[in-house]
Amino acid sequence: MKQSKVAREQHIAVFGESGSGKTVLLSSFYGLALEQELAGTERFDILAADSTQGRRLHQNYLGMKKSAILPIGTHFSSTSYSFTIKRKPGVSAKTRKVVAEELRLVWHDYPGEWFEDEPSGPEEEERRVSTFQALLSSDVAMVLVDGQKLLDHEGEEERYLKSLLTNISTQLLKLRDDVLQDNQPLARFPRIWLLALSKADLLPCMDVAGFRDLLVEKVGREVNKLQEVVSTFVEAPEALSVGEDFVLLSSAKFEPEKIEVTKRVGLDLILPIAAMLPLSRFLPWARVMTKGTGAAKHLVNAVLPLVDGLGGPKLNALMSRLPAPVAAAAALLSPVLSQPAYDLAGGKLEDLHIRAKEKHDFLAETLTGFQMELDRGDEEKVLLRGRV
Q1: Which CATH number does the domain housing residue 249 bear?
Q2: In whole angstroms, what is the distance from residue 16 CA to residue 28 CA?
Q3: Cα-Cα-Cα-Cα dihedral of 267, 109, 371, 239, to 10°?
Q4: Structural domain tally of the chain?
Q5: Better pLDDT: 301 or 76
Q6: Which of 24, 110, 127, 281 fits a 20 to 30 Å CA distance from 81?
Q7: How far apart are CA 322 and CA 317, in angstroms?
Q8: Domain annotation covers residue 102
Q9: What is the pLDDT of the chain when averaged over all its residues?
Q10: Structural domain contains residue 171
Q11: What distance in Å separates the CA atoms of residue 215 and residue 162, rounded to the nearest whole number?
Q12: pTM
């Protein structure tokens, strides 16, 4: 049986102030994955590429589950975590080719302290810049809004929200000159900035539309400012989505002397968000670009491995035969992408998922499963996606 190794990496950058729940969120995500409690883990395993990191996250999870002990905060610690999504052992004999590594999620954790305090010296300043540069490979950024702080500022939520968003915008501006070489905008930069309510269990009466409305009402101007700041980093700022997608996240249900780790909200959506939001946005953006060829090329190349994974003609080979500029080439892909193999709407999506399962096509089954999870998140009012 032929062996091949294909890494389709999806990166997500997570921003949040200290205490906003980043470590708890990640630990719960990994612990639930190991226990096959996350959606999709009946079909695939999620494994930490670094066993030491994986063991630490699992230890955090077990401490919450068995002893109601919260993980120790990672003060000024910047870490990237890589998770490999692999088909479970026991591949059907009908499958001609085993893909040893189908998909990978890389989670970039940006220390919250750097939004609140200045680096203590040149060494830490250099580490802050290098940390930010590492997450430039992300296509999706997630900004955590702390549910506990919303409760603490009930009736005057704008005080906390304005501080949060202003701090992020300010720190981005401070990093800009160090990140941009010769003041040249970047083709690759997080282009989807999702706003996430962490500790959503503390606000059980708030659905995702209510979360969106709260942000628009209280800090619509600050969200616009964040978009303006992010746009100064990127080539083709029209291919940018800031504050158009919203999600509710809760790592567990927290009670006195008890943490119920299986009672979570939104953790099943983290992988689908990282993989499928770029797929739904990047090609439409590239098709309408009139300039910014580098950005268009990145947008197309970023999703081609995933599009290929859904079956049908091999688009990488097709792209190599299409004329420049890339935006024009992306437009020519429209007839191909309108074929049933790429139609992820409604009943066709479920048919695609069933067909992939029957064909033992692991990647197509996984990606269509991710899309179904996003649709379910919409229906359950946990996720609210912007439209292209």
Answers
A1: 3.40.50.300
A2: 17
A3: 140
A4: 1
A5: 301
A6: 281
A7: 9
A8: yes
A9: 83
A10: yes
A11: 10
A12: 0.87
